[in-house]
Design goal:
The complex is a heterodimer.
Chain A lengths: L1 H11 L2 E4 L5 E6 L10 E4 L5 E3 L5 E4 L7 E5 L6 E4 L6 E6 L18 E3 L6 E6 H4 L17 E5 L7 E5 L2 E2 L3 E5 L2 E2 L18 E8 L13 E7 L8 E8 L3 E11 L9 E13 L15 E15 L2 E17 L3 E5 L5 E5 L5 E20 L4 E18 L2 E21 L8 E21 L9 E3 L2 E16 L3 E12 L3 E15 L2 E12 L3 H4 L9 E4 L19 E16 L2 E16 L1 E4 L6 E6 L2 H6 L5 E15 L2 E17 L5 E5 L6 E10 L5 E10 L2 E2 L5 H4 L5 H4 L2 E3 L5 E3 L2 E11 L3 E8 L41 E10 L4
Parallel strand pairs in A: 2-8, 14-17, 34-38
Antiparallel strand pairs in A: 1-8, 2-5, 3-4, 3-6, 6-7, 9-10, 10-16, 11-12, 12-13, 14-15, 16-17, 18-19, 18-49, 19-20, 20-21, 21-22, 22-25, 23-24, 25-26, 26-27, 27-28, 28-29, 28-30, 30-31, 31-32, 32-33, 33-35, 35-36, 36-39, 37-38, 39-40, 40-41, 40-42, 42-43, 43-47, 44-46, 45-46, 47-48, 48-49
Chain B lengths: L1 H20 L2 E8 L4 H11 L5 E7 L4 E7 L5 H10 L4 E3 L1 H11 L1
Antiparallel strand pairs in B: 1-3, 1-4, 2-3
Classes of the chains: A mainly beta, B alpha+beta.
């Protein structure tokens, strides 16, 4: 590595001597710095050339035909150098001996998930290859082969998917699109589905505390999505897919350069990404008369621009979106009775779930590089979004809008050892200012589904200016350290400080260890964070404890700012086996909340209580706790050329204090989280990369169910349902582990590829995920102990499905 | 699924036996490779040229090793294909000889 860097630096070093105007001069050297006498130097694809003199030097007249200067010498690899229009300084060309060749005979198959080796952050980079491994209609499906991130249905009725990282809800992960606020606030329930798979060029998943540059929000980690960029994307790419649930989608993307502009005006590119998705009918796979997957429409169009002139770069992105989902109770459906006889049921007043979302968002990024050698630069990022949603869940109505504005200015400089950037050591300082503004207007009708007269308002706004500084140090490849701190002032929550530190140490090439610790903060959105409970008859109770300092404008005001500490350690071994490398890693992370909003499903059946963690002491006399432990081991290797395999196992323990029916505080496992996860994923690509086979098997461990439903789930007359649960000695009910299997075959052609895949091949389904699906308006009473509830989803709601798709593109010309 | 995988295996194996009958030759080209993008471009196109059996691109040495069936294509044909991509390929005589020696 050092050698290459040395060669590159030699290559770009230009000797100070300038010769007569026009003539290009230079020297051809070998790797040891010896002059090569009589080497050929010629303009590519022309007959014009010269040979080097006895000092290895050459003089050549420029030509209008090409800027590519080729140097060749017997026993060395040819080298092509791009020569600038007005090259005044002498070129140094280093030729590499071709004797190296025999050392590298087989190129490793590039892994599609790459764990960064030198970064201080525990980051996995998923390339487009990885994203293409599964149907991947959108971001939420990109993690199916990933052991660290769980994706599951948030509830059993709306098709919303929720991610979890380190065992905690996706709300504690900072989801960024190109380092601007991505999926946050109201968007968090469906926002992952608003990022179509084919739009993504790459995803970075960082576990544990992350950089302070992007804000104070990342608690358990950070996921950053990079979209296709007009300067590199294909001029036209089309992708279409259909699955056996009759969900179809089409994506069209393209990026172009404005070729007819004068070069001195700078380079300008534009790109378009468009997505349309149609779930043609509401699926009812389990025949309970309630749609498992709503009927849906989604239109999503983005336009982006890239401009570069000398040291200045500008990127702009704008996107508009409309999403519509209609599900709930079907007005007409078939039921099968115990004798196998089918009857058609007509429902006069079906429980309808209707979700409408409009969203516009965008960003503008400006970058100026003042000094390329030291990397001194200034970046100014401005982003904004407006999100409006009108959701109906039977008689419950939730109408909400969010306006967000964000500004971040980052100054970076490699302030020491600048002449040796990228060599032995590298010090960098980043510092800047940021401002974030959020305004929410939210109204909820039917918090108690029996009382529909009141609208509870959750209106609020928050302005948070802040400053930050981050220092990073890299000592060779051995030690990396990133230490950052930021100070912010929130108009709702006051002044707060976010310190974070990440260290990586690798004394040998085959071993590295990382450690991190930091704080994360978040403003809770009580409704959006718990939208899974909307399609249920659970009565929502908001803590009414008086709060000092905040003028009450809405029900959200009881909620304190959420604060958590996250710390972790991870280690990776790189073990060479038969010319290949086995990667073994182990990690442990702990997240502890100092304050958070508890959503308590256990206090009473069919109720949901919200209160702050710190309120528990006042209410019960005992202080509450909320934390998550997370341990994971992973092994990954290319076993044979083109055949890669990864196996991972994870243990998660998420606990929180809730208040039981008798008003006592009780520390318990958080309901509906999972204790274990195992993933084995394997992929084979034929040597010419014409075929690819991917198989992923998962097992997902059991977890606790909310209290009060033991008799329902353990009902002996429903053996299919009963065998999915077990009751523990303390009376808590747990769901058992379940398998998942998915596979995909891809055939590549010169300009297109076809893929065929299957999901949930074991056809495992959570039995009766919707409680009282036939009586969604029913009230709990002595004769009817279980009223409607679709909020307790823990497993797949729909059975196996098959999908077929194609991708076609015109390859970008250079 | 199992049956399908088995069929795939059989298909792959038959391809392999067929390839053994072909006149397999190896050539090493010097190609001006800058980045992963160049490699992707070559892999996406040269792999679909008639007679190409295997392809290994190496960014470090800027070489592309092509195994091909001499009954179906030739070094010149391959060079034409590389040129059409804007990536002219020059035969690296020394490395090709070394490769061929190794294969025998």
């Amino acid at each position: 590595m050092k050698k290459i860097l040395f060669l590159i630096s030699l290559f770009i070093t230009c000797a100070a001597c300038a010769y007569a105007h026009g003539t290009i001069t230079g020297i051809v050297l070998d790797e040891q710095g010896q002059a090569l006498i009589g080497a050929n130097v010629y303009w590519a694809n022309t007959g014009k050339g010269t040979i080097t003199n006895t000092d290895g030097k050459f003089f050549i007249e420029p030509t209008k035909e090409t800027h590519l200067l080729v140097s060749s010498y017997m026993g060395y690899h040819n080298d092509t150098t791009q020569v600038a229009e007005h090259q005044h300084t002498a070129l140094t060309i280093v030729l590499v001996s071709d004797l190296i060749l025999d050392e590298v005979t087989i190129r490793e198959r590039k892994a599609s998930v790459v764990k960064s080796r030198i970064s201080a952050f525990d980051t996995q980079m998923m390339g487009a290859d990885e994203i293409c491994k599964a149907a991947c209609c959108n971001l939420s499906e990109a993690f199916e082969t990933n052991a660290s991130v769980d994706v599951a249905y948030a509830d059993a009725a709306t098709g919303a998917k929720q991610i979890r990282l380190l065992g905690l809800s996706g709300t504690y992960v900072q989801l960024l699109s190109e380092n601007t606020p991505g999926v946050r606030g109201l968007a968090q329930n469906y926002g992952m589905e608003y990022i179509p798979g084919p739009w993504m060029a790459g995803i970075q998943v960082s576990k544990g505390t992350s950089s302070v540059i992007n804000g104070y929000e990342a608690t358990t980690g950070q996921i950053n999505v990079e979209f296709l960029k007009p300067q590199t994307q294909d001029p036209i790419a089309i992708n279409a897919m259909i699955n056996s649930e009759l969900m179809a989608e089409v994506n069209v993307e393209g990026g172009w350069m404005f070729k007819h502009r004068a070069p001195e005006k700078g380079k300008l590119y534009t790109g378009i990404m468009a997505h349309y998705q149609n779930g043609m009918h509401a699926m009812d796979d389990n025949g309970d008369g309630f749609a498992d997957m709503p009927k849906s429409h989604n239109v999503n169009i983005a336009n982006r621009w890239f401009f570069k002139k000398n040291q200045y770069t500008l990127q702009a992105y704008a996107r508009g979106l409309y999403d519509q989902r209609d599900g709930g109770q079907l007005s007409m459906h078939k039921t099968t009775d115990a004798n196998g006889e089918q009857t058609i049921v007509h429902v006069t007043d079906p429980y309808h779930i209707g979700l409408r979302t409009w969203r516009v968002d965008g960003f503008v990024k400006n970058g100026i590089v003042f000094d390329e050698e030291t990397g001194m630069s200034l970046g100014i990022i401005a982003a904004g979004s407006y999100h409006d949603q009108q959701n109906r869940y039977g008689k419950r109505q939730w109408e909400a809008s969010q306006a967000n504005g964000y500004l971040n200015a980052i100054f970076q400089n490699n302030f020491e050892g600048s002449e040796r950037v990228g060599m032995d050591n590298d010090h960098r300082l980043s510092a800047g200012l940021s401002v974030n503004f959020d305004q929410y207007r939210e109204g909820l009708v039917g918090a108690n589904t029996q009382v529909l007269s009141d609208t509870l308002r959750f209106d609020r706004w928050e302005l948070t200016p802040g400053v930050f500084a981050e220092y990073s140090l890299k000592l060779e490849d051995m030690l990396s350290l990133v230490a950052g701190v930021r100070a912010d002032y929130s108009t709702r929550y006051g002044f707060f400080i976010t310190p974070r530190v990440n260290v990586r140490y690798s004394p040998w090439e085959w071993w590295s260890i990382r450690a991190s610790a930091g704080l994360g903060y978040r403003s809770p959105n009580v409704l959006a964070d718990n939208a899974f409970a909307m399609p249920s008859s659970r009565e929502m109770h908001f803590c009414t404890m008086p709060q000092g300092g905040v003028v009450s404008t809405g029900y959200n005001d009881f909620a304190h700012q959420e604060r958590a500490i996250n710390t972790g350690v991870s280690t990776t071994f790189y073990i060479p086996i038969a010319g290949r490398e086995l990667q073994l890693s182990a990690e442990y992370y702990y997240t502890g909340f100092l304050e958070c909003v508890i959503a308590d499903m256990d206090q009473a059946t069919h109720q949901l209580h919200f209160y702050n963690l710190s309120d528990i002491k006042q209410m019960t006399g005992t202080s509450g706790r909320s934390f998550a432990h997370n341990a994971q081991v992973e092994a990954s290797m290319e076993i044979l050329r083109g055949w890669t395999m990864t196996a991972a196992f994870r243990y998660t323990d998420v606990e929180q204090t809730t208040i039981d029916g008798e008003g006592k505080a009780r520390l318990r496992e958080k309901p509906l989280s999972k204790k274990y996860k195992g993933v084995i994923t394997t992929s084979y690509q034929t040597p010419l990369k014409k075929w690819q086979f991917d198989v992923t098997a998962q097992f997902n461990g059991g977890g606790r169910m909310p209290d009060g439903f033991n008799d329902y789930f353990l009902d002996q007359s429903k053996p299919e349902r009963m065998k999915q649960y077990e009751q523990k000695a303390d009376g808590s009910l747990y769901y058992k582990w379940y398998p998942q299997l998915m596979a995909q075959i891809t055939k590549y052609f010169r300009t297109c590829s076809l893929y065929l895949g299957a999901e949930n091949m074991t056809n495992f389904k959570q039995q009766n995920p919707v409680i009282a699906a036939d009586q969604p308006y029913s009230v709990v009473s002595a004769t009817n102990p279980y009223a409607f509830d679709a909020s307790m989803a823990w497993g797949p709601i729909t059975g196996w499905k098959v999908y077929l798709g194609f991708r076609w593109s015109i390859t970008k010309e250079d | 699924m199992k049956r399908f995988l088995m069929l795939m295996c059989v298909a792959l194996m038959s391809v392999a036996t067929f390839a053994a009958k072909a006149d397999k030759q190896t050539v090493v080209f010097d190609v001006d490779l800058h980045c992963q993008g160049c490699i992707t471009k070559i892999e996406k196109n040269i792999a679909f040229e008639k007679g190409v059996k295997d392809l290994i691109c190496d960014l470090k040495t800027k070489t592309v090793v092509v195994v091909f069936d001499a009954n179906k294509t030739s070094v010149e044909e391959l060079q034409k294909a590389f040129k059409a991509l804007g990536k002219p390929a020059v035969v690296n005589v020394k490395a090709t000889a070394a490769k061929q020696k190794k294969d025998k």
